[in-house]
Design goal:
Blueprint lengths: L1 E7 L2 H12 L4 E8 L2 E8 L1 H9 L26 H6 L22 H16 L11 H8 L4 H10 L5 H9 L11 E6 L6 H16 L4 E5 L7 H12 L3 E3 L3 H10 L5 E5 L8 H11 L5 E8 L4 H10 L7 E5 L8 H10 L3 E5 L8 E3 L2 H5 L31
Parallel strand pairs: 4-7, 4-8, 5-6, 5-7, 8-9, 9-10
Antiparallel strand pairs: 1-3, 2-3, 10-11
Helix pairs in contact: 5-6, 8-9
Length: 400
Amino acid sequence: MKIKRYTGTSSREILQRMRRELGADAVILSNREIVGGVEIVAAIDFEEVKSVLGRTPAAPRATAVAAPRPVAAPARPALSAAASAAAPARPVAPAPIQPAAGATPPVPAEMARLFAEMADLRRLLQAGGGAPTLPSQQASLVESGFSAALAQTCAREFPGPGALKSYLRAHLPVTADPLAGGGAHAFIGPTGAGKTTTIAKLAARQVLRHGADAVALITLDTYRIGGVEQLKIYGRILGVPVVVARGAEELARHLAAFSGRRHVLIDSIGLSPRDERLKEQLAWLRGLDGQVGNVLVMTGGMTKPFYQALSRLYEHLAVAGCVITKLDESGAPGAALEWLMERALPLWFCTDGQGVPEDIHAADSGYLARLFPETGEGDANTPIYPFSSAPGAPLAMQGI
């Protein structure tokens, strides 16, 4: 048996190298995402491995009781039945139980499950020339950031064109109009995710719907250069107040002052997980549970480990919903959607540009399915990102 570990930026790249080096009979033993790509462990001589691992080991003989038998000469014929009967009986240890001729050795349940999974993975390696690939529709989903397991589940549950759209409709939690009831919402997330621009887009929409007197903005971002000034520029254009909170008590006072406003949007600090100021800010927000809803803002197109680390960062904070940003820049947002489905975290909005307020959309399965061109759907000349379909913004947001 030969076992080899491969790392690369994509599964397709690794499978091509694996076929060249190990041949078509290679078997995938494990695959996982690592920082910057994928790791796959593969082996050859699969049948030999299965036979070795599945064989029941022989029990040791009890040499303390049985006397050693004399070794017969290689050419000496076997004893006859009569001679064997005449020979004195010797105490011997019980021989290990051997399976009947032609029977398959017993395989432990866990090993049987492993063999089944390996066999499934092996079937994915197609014989013949070229790189081993998934079926075209599943391969399209994998290239878009979804895991191979989800792509196979999607194809099994909804065979045929439109599978992803049906799968998202069935499994992705979506909130149609999350701000309809008003209230205070804090937008949290890593630095560079687009929290300030997202708040400006939502504030502009609420001003158009309810008027400037219904909206107020609070920023906690006193550390980023220009952070307060950026939000104040949006506030001046929209005609809504913008205040700064430098601590938990000041934040509580601002919330009390704006209690008569329908929407209060809070811009938080984007900091490194190792920054003590982030822990302090999260403590402020935890102290306001019930008064403030937390909305996670994250960039689409990152890998699953990134979203898992993000989950650990905010695991002690109640999160009401999520906004996926920069979909116009990310080519594979599937991992973000898969992570939301695993956590049952509702998707509130998606953004796909810097335009305020037109480049933000309420999430729905039809909108999201346009991110993932599937086999048998649509026109090949249709752009992958047919966004910005909303009419031109009625507010003078240019130059911000």
